[in-house]
Write a structure and sequence with these properties.
Elements (H helix, E strand, L loop, with lengths): L1 H33 L3 E6 L6 H17 L2 E6 L4 H13 L4 E4 L8 H9 L4 E5 L11 E4 L2 H14 L6 E6 L5 H17 L2 E7 L5 H13 L6 E4 L2 H14 L10 E6 L2 H8 L5 E4 L5 H12 L7 E3 L4 E3 L5 H6 L3
Parallel strand pairs: 1-2, 1-3, 3-4, 4-5, 5-11, 6-7, 6-8, 8-9, 9-10
Antiparallel strand pairs: 10-12
The structure holds alpha-L-arabinofuranose.
Alpha-L-arabinofuranose binds next to helix 2 and strand 9.
Amino acid sequence: MKKIFSTALVLMLMFTLLAACGKKDAETSATKEDKKITVGVVQTNANESDWRTANTKSFNEAFATAGFELKMVFGEGDHAKQISQAQQLIQEEVDYLVVLGLQSAGWEDVAKAAKTAGIPFIMADRKLDLSENLYTAMVCSDFLAEGNKAVDWLKTQKLDAYKIVVLGGDTGSSAQLGRSKAIEDGAKANKWDIVFNQNMKGWDETLAKQAVADLIATGTKFTVIYAENDNMARGACTAMDAAGITYGKNGTVKVIAFDANKWGLQNVLSGKFSLDVECNPLHGPRIVKLINSLKAGEKVEQNAYVDETTFDINSITQAIIDARKY
Ligand code: AHR
């Protein structure tokens, strides 16, 4: 009798254990399935430009809609800080790492660490100097192509004299490198003069305004402002206003800007800016789509450039501006 009782007890214990394991496995797999995708995003700066504000907003909104947990950090102009932030996110075992680099160079160790950790490394906005075996995919702008669009447009203007002021963005970012290479190569090929060529830390509008004001004070004549974003172009216009220099549609200076924020396009329509080259910041939905494809095991394009266009006084309308998302 005693033997039967103890066998029954052992059996009962076994069934209880099996049920518990099964439940745990079920819970584990359910937890795994329900676990939110966590994405680490290493952003450049919080208040860098209107473009950057739209870009950050796009990540926040798209990730919230997708149900992703977003861990966004800001380098605030410090490349070394971005590197350590990326390493920290890898330590925290995020599911995906998205990097928008202040600098193009210096990302190999982070990319290798992500690869070792099995974390897909995605570049957004600005392509980094990485071999294709070190990143999973990218959603970036082709900044050289953007600059070449501006050069091609400038050629059509057939100015009496090409005396160009270049207001560059953050030194060493792929956005600055691409856009500056385009105008520098274009000036060489077309025998144009670059009378000023300086990069503004943080793409800063005030720095651009001061640089143009100082240049005007030296008596240097110029016929083109090539500003590598809308904010710096607006800074240049403020300096020209203060000096009584006319620009835009009926002025002596052509103003070229990049980004095509809504307000920048309004300046094209009003004749202040002569050309605004689109650099589209709405990467949130693109990255969500990419991550969902990766999660589903689908093959993704490794090097995806964002489609972008240009706007000048002849092509812009209020309806176009009103329809824009940023
Ligand atoms: O990387 C894109 C550039 O960064 C934009 O042209 C500029 O406005 C932003 O700050």
